[in-house]
Design brief:
With 163 residues, the protein is an alpha+beta fold. It is 19% helix and 39% strand. The chain is built from two helices and eight strands. Strand 3 and strand 4 form a beta hairpin. The radius of gyration is 22 Å and the shape is elongated. The termini are far apart.
Length: 163
């Protein structure tokens, strides 16, 4: 009889341990990146099942520091919003979007009009950020071969216009 009770206690202990471990994996290992930034909006791209918080970025030493697991937003020109994120996290499936796919950002719906992959050194940021007549999103993430420092040889650039 005593042996049976020990097995029962062991089973209960194992079940509680597995349950506690599952809760820890679900809650304890969630990326804390969003907690480090003031959230200024949300982006959704249904065609790739993407929903992410967005934080407003400030230019620092002529650079935008990309958040680890959420999207960063920068606006310089009228009607033009520039969004960046890592291709290893938030934009891991961005390469799967197509012209015509929808993007919701804030309370505006955009339609993707173009995708292009350019060598990192061939990108003219002044041209990319120039103001436009239509509300436009420009999303950029790393592409191509990996380089040191969480960088890559190319950039995938997705352009979307409000309709």
């Amino acid at each position: 009889m005593e042996l049976k009770h020990r097995r029962d206690y062991r089973k209960v202990f194992v079940i509680l341990y597995v349950l506690a471990f599952a809760i820890y994996l679900t809650v304890g290992l969630q990326p804390a990146d969003a907690a480090h930034y003031e959230i200024s909006g949300k982006i959704s791209i249904p065609s790739i099942n993407l929903t992410s918080s967005v934080t407003t970025l400030e230019l620092s030493d002529n650079r935008l520091n990309t958040p680890d697991t959420i999207v960063g937003s920068y606006t310089r020109g009228e009607n033009k919003t520039f969004l960046i994120g890592h291709s290893s996290t938030v934009f891991k499936d961005l390469y799967k979007v197509k012209p015509g796919d929808k993007i919701s950002y804030g309370d505006v719906e955009y339609t993707i009009t173009s995708l292009e992959t350019l060598a990192k050194d061939d990108i003219d940021m002044k041209k990319l950020l120039v103001k436009t007549k239509e509300k436009t999103l420009v999303i950029m993430t790393c592409a191509g071969e990996s380089l040191e420092g969480n960088d890559a040889t190319h950039r995938l650039i997705v352009t979307a216009v409000a309709k």
